[in-house]
Amino acid sequence: MNAALRELLADLGYETSCVSRVRNLNDDITDWVPLPAARAIQQMWSEPVDLEIRDNTSLISFPPPRRGAHRNVLFLHAILSPGQQWFGNDAIDRYWACSDYLRQVIVSFLSLPDWTRGRLFDPRAFSIVGSVTLPLPHLEMPGTLIESANGTGELPAPAVAALAGQDVLGYCVSTKIDQRATYSILLALNQMALESGIGRRFRLFVENYLYDDLRRWLQDRPPAEMPPEFAPLRLYLARLGLTIDDLLIPLPLLAQPALFEILRACRFSLQYHWLPEGFGLLPLEAVCHGCPVYTNGAGNLRYLLPAGCGINVFETEAMVFGDAAAYLAVAQRIFQDTVVDPEPARAACRRGAEHIAATYTREAMRRDLGARLAELDEPPSEHDLDAARIVLNPMVRAWNPETRRVISDWRSVELSPDQAALLQEILGQRCGELECRRDPAAMTVVDGFLDRGIIAVFPAEALPAASAPASLAGERHGG
Description:
CATH class of the largest domain: Alpha Beta
CATH architecture of the largest domain: 3-Layer(aba) Sandwich
Strand order of the largest sheet: 9-8-7-10-11-12
Helix content: 25-40%
Largest sheet: 6 strands, parallel
Distance between the termini: 31 Å
Number of domains: 3
Mean pLDDT: 86
Shape: globular
Low-confidence stretches: 466-479
Structural class: alpha/beta
Radius of gyration: 24 Å
């Protein structure tokens, strides 16, 4: 992505240079002494530049200063970033995001209301944040496939054996996965396989560390030391007569050619995340290689593709609030799509691949980048708090007034009856017309909604777009 950004900036008339450093997270004290960062800063400030573009990772080293650049842009790729480095930082002229979902989330942070002063945290919030479409590297830049520098091109022996077997293979390599959801679906699939007599197991490719962690708790530690969430897993495996080696296939970090070999062999991908996805590169790659994705839609995953294009978003309140049996519905759909009638899922991936090839392109990135650069010359407009409306925060995936439950990318909660009634009352209202602003106790609750990411304030002309996520079982959740 950095290579594409640099090339497109050059196409648009910029002379570019790049400052970066790869850190190895180990116990060597030289990684923590800031001398390398000092050298990077010196290099960056060696001569003034017209524009400085930083990403999330650069914030870990040092905040964006005004010195050295006429204008600063922070290009965020994820929600996770040290906000104390950029909230209220006047040195940052614009914020760019890698998806419209992330753009809306950044705006919701910057538009936090200050009721006492009658203003937004940053009155410019709605005019200084934009999004830039990212291209899919293996389609748009095939010569830049990530090779052995960032991952091995050799598949380990267990993976080779799995590819040569007859089992139904799935892909779930991510540091963001919800283990409870993932293992509940996998166990339900194997229960169905056993009952149907198909003679094949459902197995899942996972990262090495997840496999090692689960093996340690299930096989190498005494039951008395086991965390409570692993006890049902051990019992269920015993009931099915399976071990973790029957279900999980560990993988190291792979170079893209090896990764794509795995994806082409997989009949499904599980992307039930506990951490929201800012963009979603891997699900797009999976669909391109004929591997349908099943997900809770955390973050941008629910907006990546239209319905019926290979990314299936399905989530219920029961799943989110602790009922592992609720994931049976997902397993039933995957069983249908992999064993009973695979063609509809394959056709959906073909439609998805066509949409991806037409949407996530270098030309789209060039178009958005040109628009964002042109905005740098426009003075940002400011918005008034009283004119903004109360809306559900873009991180909210679902709000059910009947059960009083909020499903969120950040923190899902069940509200009290009084809290739920107040939330229903204020949604859609202009901030200047909130009757509860005269009630300190009610405003404490409203501030709690803001602090937990349940609500946000947006002006009428910039309300979050309602995008319908792809769905299983005809269900749609979301605000």
